[in-house]
Amino acid sequence: AQTVTQSQPEMSVQEAETVTLSCTYDTSENNYYLFWYKQPPSRQMILVIRQEAYKQQNATENRFSVNFQKAAKSFSLKISDSQLGDTAMYFCAFMSNSGYALNFGKGTSLLVTP
Amino acid sequence: NAGVTQTPKFRVLKTGQSMTLLCAQDMNHEYMYWYRQDPGMGLRLIHYSVGEGTTAKGEVPDGYNVSRLKKQNFLLGLESAAPSQTSVYFCASSTLSTSQVQPQHFGDGTRLSIL
């Protein structure tokens, strides 16, 4: 089974600053998908961004972007111009090309301070 | 714009009791999933279904059963609840696409406490 590792249990950033959350994964597959989900205190699971492994271009969604390093099996999330509403738990997730379900990391708790 | 709806949102059970968690989606998705979320563990897959009438085991299936009698509903059952099943349960659904991976849409979760 693929494993997803998020090595930063907690992080803090000041409003308007940039923060990067780390994620590494282990797989022997060549085609797969990676996701970042956000879970605010409301407990909802919200998709932030996704990346297909066969695409070399890093995905971006407004203030959110990823640094996908396939050879290093690394998938970090960069949040620019951090806002108070970005305070949440962030989960990195892996999905096999031949599978259906997501393998989640243990999450990184991000606190944005004024 | 309901999306994925989980019922109930909160429940307290005694050890040995049984209950069923209901998940309903109105997006005509083929795939449905049940996850559990424990502190410091992230989300782990319990069971999933790739279509009406079919189910399969995930990473942590023991102590749970599921049924998918209708495409829009996915039920998670606990026959004899144990304290180790105290958790937050999430249902999710996704659609089939050959051109692009489709993200999973999550419900708001059910907080279940077993005393």
How is the secondary structure organized here?
The complex is a heterodimer of chains A (114) and B (115).
Chain A: E1 3-5, E2 10-14, E3 19-21, E4 24-26, E5 32-39, E6 46-52, E7 60-61, E8 64-69, E9 74-79, E10 88-96, E11 103-104, E12 108-113
Parallel strand pairs in A: 2-12
Antiparallel strand pairs in A: 1-4, 3-9, 5-6, 5-10, 7-8, 8-9, 10-11, 10-12
Chain B: E1 4-7, E2 10-13, E3 19-25, E4 31-38, E5 42-51, E6 54-57, E7 65-67, E8 73-78, E9 87-94, E10 105-106, E11 110-114
Parallel strand pairs in B: 2-11
Antiparallel strand pairs in B: 1-3, 3-8, 4-5, 4-9, 5-6, 7-8, 9-10, 9-11
Mean pLDDT of chain A comes to: 93
Largest interface: A-B, 21 and 23 residues
Major sheet attributes of chain B? 7 strands, mixed
Per DSSP E runs of 2 or more residues, the count of β-strands of chain B stands at 11
Query: Cα-atom Rg of chain A, whole angstroms?
Result: 14 Å
Your description of this structure?
The complex is a heterodimer of chains A (114) and B (115). Chain A is mostly beta strands and 114 residues long. Chain A contains no helices and twelve strands. In chain A, the strands form three sheets. In chain A, strands 2, 5, 6, 10, 11 and 12 form a six-stranded mixed sheet that branches. A four-stranded antiparallel sheet of chain A has the order 3-9-8-7, with no helix packed on it. Chain A starts with a strand and ends with a strand. Chain B is built from no helices and eleven strands. In chain B, strand 7 and strand 8 form a beta hairpin. Chain B is 0% helix and 53% strand. By secondary structure, chain B is mainly beta. Chains A and B meet through strand 6 and strand 11 of A and strand 5 and strand 9 of B.
